[in-house]
Amino acid sequence: MNEKILAQDNKVLKRIFNLDTNAFAEGHIDSKTKEMIGLASSMVLRCDDCVKYHLGKCHEAGLTKEQVFEVFSIATLIGGSIVIPHLRRAVDYFEELDNQKLNNV
Amino acid sequence: MNEKILAQDNKVLKRIFNLDTNAFAEGHIDSKTKEMIGLASSMVLRCDDCVKYHLGKCHEAGLTKEQVFEVFSIATLIGGSIVIPHLRRAVDYFEELDNQKLNNV
Amino acid sequence: MNEKILAQDNKVLKRIFNLDTNAFAEGHIDSKTKEMIGLASSMVLRCDDCVKYHLGKCHEAGLTKEQVFEVFSIATLIGGSIVIPHLRRAVDYFEELDNQKLNNV
Amino acid sequence: MNEKILAQDNKVLKRIFNLDTNAFAEGHIDSKTKEMIGLASSMVLRCDDCVKYHLGKCHEAGLTKEQVFEVFSIATLIGGSIVIPHLRRAVDYFEELDNQKLNNV
Amino acid sequence: MNEKILAQDNKVLKRIFNLDTNAFAEGHIDSKTKEMIGLASSMVLRCDDCVKYHLGKCHEAGLTKEQVFEVFSIATLIGGSIVIPHLRRAVDYFEELDNQKLNNV
Amino acid sequence: MNEKILAQDNKVLKRIFNLDTNAFAEGHIDSKTKEMIGLASSMVLRCDDCVKYHLGKCHEAGLTKEQVFEVFSIATLIGGSIVIPHLRRAVDYFEELDNQKLNNV
């Protein structure tokens, strides 16, 4: 789908897509921490697709379930109980990621 | 001001205030990382008072200017240019925190 | 699904879940009124799952269709026409709750 | 200020202003309950001016401090700790309203 | 579905529905521009149904793909990368509208 | 203040600032229309500083009071009555811009 968007050759959109790679790259803050920041920001803004994306990255980076739940708890506290339906889907998806990993071993 | 709120003895509010301390305490994630998460979440939700609070905590925890700016950049990318006025005030406040520290040496 | 979240034994999340029960319990304000408040807050924040939850509680508490529509109208006025897609799904769900009740008689 | 807006004779804005009066009028739900709904909705959407407006109406309608705090607690739970700075200003303003009333007796 | 809502005869909701027609009608600003405004506002508020609605109207009004992408780029810049999942669905839907038109020729 | 932010040499932030110029430049859509889009988006997201910025640009571009009020009415309808305090400040600021212009003649 990104290909379709990039194919349109809209400079502003193309650059925003590039920035996404830049912003989460290893820098003065390590990329694992940045993904936790991305995850929490996505949860408080209540975007399921964005939560999934950053949760995948957190899982890849080796974040433990206990750590992920601490990110979840901060986001739910800051964002309020309105975040809970997204939390439920996030917990579900993290379990799925764990299962996929087990099946690949 | 918190005293006034707690004095009212509303159990739900009291517990939310307590949770705030719990959620950001050292745990499976260190508290410095948690404050960065709190800072980014506050920025994307565009709450100046909350940004100031977590920026103060980040400063205390020894986060460098380069690191703080990386948190700022993630939050501004995720939250969009609507975050920029809050970013300006945050940059201003971080400078103020630096100056206070210098004056105290 | 809540069981999975609670099983993880994250203190902050567990307490937020408990608070939910506390906040909507009969108190200085009756629980029927509290559910109307929960319904309107969920609508202006545009969370379908939360709207469904509180709409179910309002229905159980005996709120009439006319009353529910007055809550809907306040939420749509405050939250704007961006709320309308959620309003549509809410009206649909309330009708479903009415039908379920009729079938159970 | 409303006069200036209404003077412009923009039909849509004029009608939105009129709707505000209609939506909160005594109906199938009493206006006191409606003001509590307006207060909570304003808090979760984090609009200080709107909170003040509905808090004034709640105070006029004779809502007690205990009742107002229950509305506050639901709004803070649903909307999250990001609501707390607005809660502080709301508590302050409710106290002010109480003092004004005492001085007028 | 609108019929069900209007059938309920809630004056506030009925008027909000009417205002929708009024606000986007040809006026001091032409209706094509108004639909672009409606599209961008729907995107920054991240409402897929509203985006689809205004995108359909923009397509009807003859907005080109290049123009629609410029509206998308402004909305994504202002609203941030959190808008991207909605952008993807919007691009998909605009393509669908184009295909429907071709098939009808 | 932008200078301070740009001086920090954070690539992501610098590019977001550049994008702002790009996105609103004359293109397949004229810049006057783009500023109306920016104004409405800022209003529904309820950012006073952003509203002021785009209102200034709209004024410069020669938008009439009637046109500006039509943008306001769309934004207030979509975003809801929660937008009204920002509308008031916007009307005030537009008047100020008009007065400045008269004084400069």
Report a brief summary of the structure.
Chain A is mainly alpha-helical and 105 residues long. Helix content of chain A is 78%, strand content 0%.
Describe the structure.
6 copies of one chain form a homohexamer. With 105 residues, chain A is mostly helical. In chain A, 78% of the residues lie in helices and 0% in strands. Chain A is built from 6 helices and no strands. The two termini of chain A are 30 Å apart. The interface between A and B is medium-sized, with 31 and 31 residues.
Question: Topology, pairings included?
Answer:
Six copies of one chain form a homohexamer.
Chain A: H1 2-7, H2 11-23, H3 31-44, H4 48-60, H5 65-79, H6 84-104
Helix pairs in contact in A: 3-4, 3-5, 4-6
List keywords for this structure.
homohexamer; 105 residues; mainly alpha; 6 helices; 0% strand
The helix-and-strand class of chain A reads mainly alpha
Q: What's the alpha carbon Rg of chain A, rounded to whole Å?
A: 15 Å
Q: What is the overall silhouette of chain A?
A: globular
User: What is the multimeric organization of the chains shown?
Assistant: homohexamer
Largest interface: A-B, 31 and 31 residues
Task: Give the end-to-end Cα distance of chain A, rounded to a whole number of Å.
Answer: 30 Å
Give helix % range of chain A: over 70%
Overall pLDDT score of chain A: 95
- Please count the helical segments of chain A: 6
Q: Major β-sheet of chain A, in short?
A: none
Order of helices and strands of chain A: HHHHHH
Report the portion of residues of chain A in β strands: under 5%
